[in-house]
Amino acid sequence: MNSSKVAVVGAGLAGLYTAQALHAAGVDVLLLEGRNRLGGRILTVDDGGTPSDDGFDLGPSWFWPEMQPTMAELVTELGLDSFIQHSTGDVVFERMSRERPQRFSPAYENQQSMRVSGGTGAVVRALAARLPDERIRLGTQVRAMALRQHGVELSLRGTDGLSGTAQSMVGPMVEIHDSTTKSGRAAFFGFLGVGAEQRKSVGEEALKQACVDQLGRLFGPAALTPRATLLKDWAGDPFTATADDRTGGDHPTPGSSRWVGGEWERRLVMAGSETSPSEPGYLAGAVVAAKQAVSEILTRLETK
Questions:
Q1: What is the Cα–Cα distance from 174 to 212, expressed in whole angstroms?
Q2: Fewer CB atoms inside 10 A, N or C side of the chain?
Q3: What is the pLDDT of residues 70-89, one digit of tens each?
Q4: Count of CB atoms within 10 A of residue 91's CB?
Q5: Cα–Cα distance between 115 and 134 in angstroms, integer?
Q6: Is residue 87 part of a domain?
């Protein structure tokens, strides 16, 4: 297929939702993805780093039904099962390198976070199943866009008695959570507090070992001998970040709804989590942005 009525660039959650919804509406749509897999920053793998139907999320993992009903509705719509984030037990807090980690019981419960059974990759697989294979092109990079007379031309090339939650001001991980699957495959997941340039200079193996050493300090000697360690640096992923993105920033906040102007305004619609008018940077934000894009595209097509 060399042409289509609508081209969706990027097969993350927002792109996948947009493409399948347009296809369901009878629109001639083509989904283009530079990676050789679907999902964007959603990546669920086994302990060998291979995509798995019952693996560990190396990207987004949680949704909050009460705060993010859009994501909860999508999980239900796709017929997927979900389960409550493991959080029973004490929290470990590491304040300084010369002090022992401390345990404390949470004083209150936050709104309950949920995870998708099998990992968030299950959402990707369910959405992809709604699109014919010929409507998806993996390994296809969109290098440039040009306005032509009749359209747009794309140039393509777990520890006993603890919740598993920990916070640290020592690092390298500043926030750690239980990542055990519903079937009971135990794991920890952590957010690194090390800048992108420093991560690059230290190297993956040294960084992994530092994380394992930290788990040993926090959860005991058994944590020093994991079956596997997985590291995914999204700042080093060319399909997610550029060199300009290596400087750390705050979590995105709802911004201007007008992302595209000028002569491109009628031809290019942004549908990524960061462009969402609500919950930007979260799974729910990707769905909200995608639904908004679908509505806008369909409206434009009807008025032509």
A1: 13
A2: C
A3: 999 999 999 999 999 998 89
A4: 17
A5: 31
A6: yes
